[in-house]
Amino acid sequence: MVKNVTLKILSKDKMVYKKTAEIIKNGGVAIVPTETVYGFAVDAFNIEAQKNVYKIKERSHRKPFILMTKDIESVKIFVKIPQKIFEIAKRFWPGQLTLIFPTTEIGKIVSGGRKDLGVRIPDNRFMLSLLNEIKRPIFTTSVNLSNTRSAKNVKETLNFDGIVDVIVNGGQCKFSLESTVVDMVQFPYTVVRKGCFDASKLLRYM
Fold first, then answer.
1. Which of 12, 99, 129, 161 could serve as a FRET partner for 170 with CA atoms 20 to 30 Å apart?
2. Average pLDDT estimate for 184-191
3. In what order do the strands lie in the sheet containing 180-183?
4. Element (H or E) spanning 108, and its range?
5. Cβ distance 63 to 117 under 8 Å?
6. Cis ω on the peptide bond leading into residue 137 (within 30° of 0)?
7. End-to-end alpha carbon distance in the chain
């Protein structure tokens, strides 16, 4: 794999949002901190950038990424959310909860034709500020080689130094555990991945 010069920057640096956003918008691959685990981040509309992350992670193309947006209204552009579930999502977003819904036509375009897509609004100041700076959604996936442990602090991301374009140092992730993923395409809804969000909290609103 071709070596890059990887920019390393602190999440508290006053230029971090501008520099990271420019790299992502120009098709680069970023490693960013979230409240769950560190994630690879690329422009959701850049197919080549998505392919690069699959290659870096040695990940099967059958496994989708998670779409992150800055607010719940922008989520609706990419997935179809029934009104009842939309009201539930508003209770738990931003948060450590990824919800899978059927894709819209735009959602199919960014996901390579997938019929469903996992989306999340992170509860993390850095990520929300970055999304606001980029002004477009990003695809994310945990920082690791496929089927290995996710990076929970910046030290664990350094295996990808020289491979990605930027690593943002946000220290230790708050939860240090992946988001909970719930498939809401059809009832009964299914917990696809247990993570740091307690999925039983959803039951009282179903």
1. 99
2. 92
3. 7-10, 166-169, 30-32, 39-43, 138-142, 66-68, 116-120, 97-102, 180-183, 190-193
4. helix 105-110
5. no
6. no
7. 47
Per-residue pLDDT tens digits for 109-159: 999 999 999 999 999 999 999 999 999 999 999 999 999 999 999 999 999
**CA 92 – CA 99 distance, rounded (Å):** 10
Give the domains, in start order, of the chain with CATH numbers.
7-205 (3.90.870.10)
Residue 97's beta-bridge partner residues?
Answer: 180
Nearest-CA neighbor of 157 among 167, 147, 172, 170? 167
Cα separation, 193 vs 84, whole angstroms: 23
Structure tokens at 90: 């508003």
Q: Kindly list the distances between the CA atom of residue 139 and the CA atoms of 7, 64, 93, 105, 142, in Å, as whole numbers in the listed order.
A: 20, 9, 17, 17, 11
pLDDT at position 202: 87
**Cα–Cα distance for residue pair 154/39, rounded to 1 Å:** 11
Question: Position 102: which residue type?
Answer: P
* Residue 70 and residue 121 in contact, taking contact as beta carbons nearer than 8 Å: yes
Amino acid (1-letter code) at residue 147: N
CA dihedral 121, 140, 137, 99 (to 10 degrees): -40
Which amino acid, residue 177? L
Token pair for 62: 């059958």
Q: What's the rounded Cα separation, in Å, for the pair 169 and 9? A: 6
d(CA 140, CA 43): 9
